[in-house]
Structures are given as structure tokens and as C-alpha cells.
Amino acid sequence: MKYDFDEIIDRTGTNAMNTDGFRQYIFNATEDMKFPFKDEEFIRMWIADMEFATPPEIREAVKERLDRKIMGYSQVFDPAYYEAVSNWMNRYYDWSFPKEHLETSHGIIPALYELVEYICKPNEKVLIVTPSYGFFKSAAEHNHLELVCSDLINEQGHYSIDFADFEAKASDEQVTLCIFCNPHNPSGRVWTTEELQRVGEICLKYNVWVISDEIHCDLLRTGRKHTPLAKLFPDTDRIVTCMSPSKTFNMAGLMFSNVIIANEGLRTIWQTRHYGFKNPLSIAATQAAYEHGDEWLKQLKTYLDDNFAFVDQYVKRDLPQAVFHIPEATYLAWIDIRAYVPKDVNLPLFFAEQAGVLLEDGHMFVANGGGCIRLNLACPRSVLEEGLRRISTVLVNKSESEPVQV
Ligand SMILES: Cc1ncc(COP(=O)(O)O)c(C/N=C2\CONC2=O)c1O
């Protein structure tokens, strides 16, 4: 079956953050914030969900569950769920874990909030690398814990871990947890096994728990390989792995993720305190994703590869002073445009008001992201082309950017 990633889907009136939540999320404003563009005129490249239809196989599974007519209190009881998850992990990552280690959550963000509370004591600290997904900071703040940031080294847009700094911060006795993102949002790095080995060894050396947030792991550029951190450390139970098909298959709204907890004590706390009932439609969708999502994902990855190639050519041609590298994973383009804009410009506001493009910038990624914008490329090529045209027009004051042939 050939899936249509060029389809333009109207999301208005669906309570989508993407169309209706940007004023509050990006600008911390109320709904009456006015722009020179109508809401429906914006090119939306901000929040990380996709403009592509959730795969038909998943939607079919949800419909089948609906046809059972009753949607009562539910949990994951059917062993087929674990089989589906386990088979996926074996097929894609050559990784397996015992059934009893698998817990589920109402999304990874809620899992982070809970796990930080269950792992850390008051006055302890949480270590992250920066720039970072903003909710890693929120998870520490929600639990009134100090956040410790280790800035990634940025060499002309190539990001790497500053291991000297990372180890120095991990050695702080009050640092008891590292929330680690692999693949990394927003840089798109897929950490190598050598880098992962060093992260794990440093954390274990200083008794630092690791929550390995691997939500983007299926969204690899063709040819790239993801290694679950826990796979490299089979003898420890202090790595918690968070994964979900929600990012992969555009179903974040179903609020369902997997949390693999090897440590028995932590798992007991989770089972005691986590609200266990789950949405039966989310269970059905997630299981279907892992059972039937392979072909859609294969075609999605090709489409995203082509979108990234297009952006790469476009930036090289129209924004030659920008710094951009095709990321190893995610559908997010992280572009350093500081050569085009003064330091103190509010980039999301600038692009919303001047270009009618909704995007996120480095200030939304905790630290160490100044001068960068992040574009969501999980959209039809026609939308991407218009978004890039608008961005380059306002940045280089060009009358009309020539279309880049890819
Ligand atoms: C690293 C990471 N962890 C967790 C989540 C959210 O997990 P959920 O609660 O949906 O299961 C995201 C979504 N990232 C987003 C969502 O919008 N913009 C982003 O960068 C993410 O990038």
C-alpha cells in the first residue's frame, strides 16, 4: 500500500494544540493575541506532532475496539500487548526485556514527572544536557528539584557531549538522576554506542539513575541505527527506558507510552502510586502500531529523508550563512540563523508576525540554544516549501526565492 504524505488535512475544530494552542504555549499569551495573519494562514512548524494521517492500520484498530461497544475501565491485561512491544524491540533494536519490567504511562511527560518524584529525594538534583526538551526542566521543577545543565559542545552545528563537564556535574553527590534524551531533541543526534557507554559508565560510577527518553528512536534517517542505553548495561537496573509509538505514528493525543523499569523497588513504587487505568482505545492503537506499523514507517522515513534533503539544499542556496546539518533522527530541523538576526530578537514572535510561520527557538530548549530555530518537517512538501519560502524571504529580504530543485 502507498501512503499519501502529501495530503493536506484540516485540523481546525479538533482541539489540536498545533492549530489552537500556540498563543499560550509559544507566547504565553491569551487567545486574543493578534497577528497580521489569520490562524488558518499560518504555516505551523512548531509542536512535534505530524501533519500526516495516523496510519490506517492504527485507526482501524481503534474502530474495531469502538465496535466492541463498551469502553469501561481498562488496563493492559492481554499478553499480546507485551508480545507486540517485545517483537518490535527485537526487530528494530535487537533488544529484549522481561515482561514484568514493562509498565505503561499516560505519556512520557507524565512518566518523567512521576519517575523524578519516585527516584529523587528532596534537595537532590537532576542532570540534563543542553539544549534540552523543555519538559526535562519542568519535570525537575515540578518536583522542586534543582536542575543541573551540562552544555553540549556545538562545533559548527555538530553537537557532542562535554564529558569532562558531564562527569564533573554527575560527581556532585546531590545529583542522583540524569534525564538523557536519545535520539536528542532538538539537535537530532543519535548518540553512538561509545558515547552511550561513557554516559552510562559515568552515571553508574557516581550512583546516578538514568531515565533514557528514547521517544524519537524509530524516527531515524535511513541507514542510522539506534541503541537503547539499557541494552549496553544489562547488569544494572538503574536505567529506566521511556519509549512510545506516539511520536512515530502521530498519535500523541492518545497519551500512551511504555516505561521499562528493571529495578524492582522502583517498579513497586510505580505500581503502587501510578494511576493504572488506561484508555482502551490507546491500548488498541499502540498495540496495532507495533504489530502493523512497519510499512508506513518505512515510507514515512523515505518522505522525511526527502524533506530533509530539500531543506539542506534550500538552506545552502538561500540561507548560506545559516548552519544546518541533516539530523540523524527526529523530524525536527535545528538551524542556527544567528548570522541573519540580531541576538535579542524574539524569533518565534518575529517569524509569526513577519512570515506567518509558527516555530520554536533555542530559548525554548532550556539553555545553549541561542540563535537557533527548530522546524517541524513532518508535513507535506508543499507546506514545507511555503514555510521555507516565507522564512528565507523575511531573513534575506528576497522578493521571491527561486524554488530549489531536489
Ligand atoms: C524527548 C521527548 N520526550 C517526551 C516527549 C513527549 O512525550 P509524550 O508526553 O507526548 O508521550 C517529547 C515530545 N516532544 C515535543 C512535543 O512538542 N514539541 C516537542 O519537542 C520529546 O521530544
Bound molecules: the ligand Cc1ncc(COP(=O)(O)O)c(C/N=C2\CONC2=O)c1O
Radius of gyration: 21 Å
Q: Quick one: biggest sheet?
A: 7 strands, mixed
**Average residue pLDDT:** 96
Based on Cα principal axes, name the global outline. globular
How far the N terminus sits from the C terminus, by CA atoms, comes to 25 Å
Write the element-wise H/E pattern from the N-terminal end onward: HHEHHEHEHEEEHEHEHEHEHHHEHEEEH
- Helical amount: 25-40%
Strand content: 5-15%
Strand order of the largest sheet: 2-10-9-8-7-3-4
Which secondary-structure class do the elements indicate? alpha/beta
Number of strands: 14
Helical segment tally?
Answer: 15
Low-pLDDT stretches are 398-406
Domain Aminotransferase class I/classII large: 48-391
Organism: Paenibacillus vandeheii
GO molecular function, one term: transaminase activity
Protein name: cysteine-S-conjugate beta-lyase
